[in-house]
Write a structure and sequence with these properties.
With 643 residues, this protein is α/β, with parallel strands linked by helices. The protein is built from ten helices and 32 strands.
Amino acid sequence: MVWFAALALALLTQCAHAQLPKNGGLTDERPTYDSPEDAVYALVEPKLKTPWTEAVAADPANVWPEHPRPGLRRDNWVSLNGVWEFESAASKDDVQDVPVGTTLGQRILVPFCIESGLSGIALQSAFSWYRTTFDVPSSFGDDNVILHFAAVDYETTVFVNGEQVGTHTGGYDKFSFDVTSYIDKSTSNELILFVYDPTDSAGEVIPIGKQRAVPSHIFYTPCSGIWQTVSLEAVPSADHMTDILLFAAADGTVSATITTASNTSSASAQIAFFDPDDASQIVFSTNGTTNAPFSFVFDPAPQTWSPDTPVVYNVSVTVGDDVAYSYTAFRTVERKEVNGVQRFLLNGEPIYQFGPLDQGYWPDGLHSPPSYEAMIFDIQYLKDLGMNFIRKHIKMEPDLYYYAAASIGMLVMQDMPALPTGVNPNETQQIEFERQLELLFKSHMGFPAITSFVIYNEGWGQLPTGPEIYLAPRVAEWVRGHQLINAVSGWHDYGQALLNASVGDFHDNHHYSSPQCGAPFSSLPSLPFHGDRIGFQGEFGGVGVNTTIEHLWNDDVAIAAIDETYEIDANLEIWNYRALRVIEELREQTEMFSCNGAVYTQTTDVEGEVNGFLTYDRAEDHVDAERWKAAIVALYETFQASL
């Protein structure tokens, strides 16, 4: 079988010289094999490599070896990441013809997007088969076996040993199945996935963030299929924990909810907190019951968490025979009036949030960072510049990202992945959006680094009736003060426009390149600032500087769109001058008006956007570090003086 031939033939019937749909590969060349058994994994040369690309591709058996769930981690687990079999399908109907016992024609490196170079496929594939085999470790003994998927985009049907185990819809949330009754612990087991990902094809309105089948400037190459870790985990057969939710406040009060698979039983839960300075020492322990919230006070008083003191407590929870580990940090966020101005408070003190718009894209892995080391490189880079904040822009990250952000000391404003622009969801699509909003926010609200959630960005997929008017109070009920709510980032603030009401905690302005932060001036479609919410600059800056082809996303369409960047500067000297000029404007507005923080666009270049602190490959740094550090310190000092 020559796996590429079928796809190539289909494309050629449409256009004799058609190029492949946009993907992460530098060229349209892909390997061919005489038979499926001959297929091997090989990196497809990406349009741009990172410093981690070659090492990851050279060691596919050890890709992303870290436990993927720091919020609910057990010792007895195994990663299924690595080389799997892969093949594109023709339609959704193909799910009825499961290739049990059939070797597929390609090899893919899990967990990288199908379209990425690191995957070894680098093709857009709306309908896809994955296949692998696994042995259950002897250490699992008589325990039940849970099959975990950290993220698969978008509709997934899972088969184990030829039987359908379950389905899942959504490209950003983790899901799992108890596969105990489907497996044979004494022999090898077959795992098959069918994945359908429509991205933004006609008629489909789903959460996709910045993915587009046809990328264009601020919209990027799509990510389909498995893009986060797949794993197996042993759990007690009687009952086991499925969620550990800890809301730890700065005063030492903790609200805990320990959910189990039974979801209704009430069993004893023992919680132990470990000394942040000596992981072998328990500093506090208490008891509660499962499947219902309970509260307690940490005694003695805990060390509080902030960007300056990023103290994270590791936690163990025991329910019967089940022992799992989690983490938390003691911090409190609130919106409060201080000397007549609405402020964002952390641990009772106003704090100025400053950091980048962070897209979370990688030229070699697209949605998937090439490694944990690469992922934390971005966070640490921002921290070293003096920033204390990241706006994670209409994309979710692996759970490990938020653990790293807490450990490094970064406040995170987490966006809901947006629906497509230019189209309104119908009733069914809006219901599905709200279902996924609930899943994503509830599964992330226990992460202490996340201090605010964004529901809508710049009106993308936002109905003109203003769904945020009822969604913001709903989210507030879920998070119970553990996060603040940014109902609409940028514009289409229908609560203010239709009802003259304050919806959410932030008045969020977008304006390029100069800011309009908590100021007595604004530009449509942002609305005037009335002082009834936290004045915040949700996006600004965005000035760009071109670079050499060695550090560009090597795609003709993307390169042609570079001039669409908000501003292009002649060289790095001018870029630093212009970027620092708009940051000085921000400092002036912080001094004069009611500005509480800002989001500068952006961490890295991405495809056709060249306005990053770093090039897309993370190899070239644009910033004059000492001048930037001084400018950022000046923002904080000016804010404190304004209180």
